Here is the input.
Amino acid sequence: MPLLPLPAATPLWKQVFGEAYAIPDDVPAGFDDISWHNDTCPSFLNASCSLRLFIDHPERDERELPEFKRFLLMMVDEAGQPVDGGVLLETDDWNEMRNAIVEAITDPASPAGAL
Here is the structure.
């Protein structure tokens, strides 16, 4: 009898917050899922670039803090905690966020590149 492949592990964000959060499939490489049940939404950490990405529910009315944008990128310290004035971008547009992440990772002149 042939062996069937094991199903892929369920991502942490999905275990903690549920499938309805619909995290984009193209989160840039280097971001680790560090979602935690006490946070308001899933989050991803790129420790080597000192960046943390929060991705909230696609439906504003389903967010714990509906006044916030869906995507938030911020600079963090060695422990992954936000630094003062560290918000790089807040937006509801994933393409804008993804482009900002790529710039922050690849451009030494960007705010994140100065870390």
Observations:
- The chain has a mean pLDDT of 88.
